[in-house]
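Q: Here's a chain of 116 amino acids. Please give me its 3D structure as tokens.
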Amino acid sequence: MVTLIGDLGAGKTTFARGALRALGVTGTIKSPSYTLIETYELPTVNVVHLDLYRLKHPDELEHLGLADYHAPGQRWFIEWPENGGGRLPPADLEFRFSVTAEGHRIEKIETSRLLK
């Protein structure tokens, strides 16, 4: 699970799109800003891309049916994970994005204890 944290316009969705392209997505990559969830079935891996910005309460996660998407080897990219109120599993990788006068940048990358 990869979490993407940063203000609006910091580059989270752009980063996720680049990662999806690197994993092999060749078609249109839609932002999950309005649908909250987009899935991609690839020959070697399935990917779930969530954008939790519009979640008003962590209880709304239950209505997304996320349990239906859990499978071995599944890859997750989650924008605005903090809106999940701690109800998401710990991230394997966490990217923090910021916008400075010089432009967009990745401010910090953290890995879980499992990857250290």
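Q: Can you summarize the key feature?
A: Strands lie at 2-5, 37-41, 46-51, 75-79, 93-100, 103-111.
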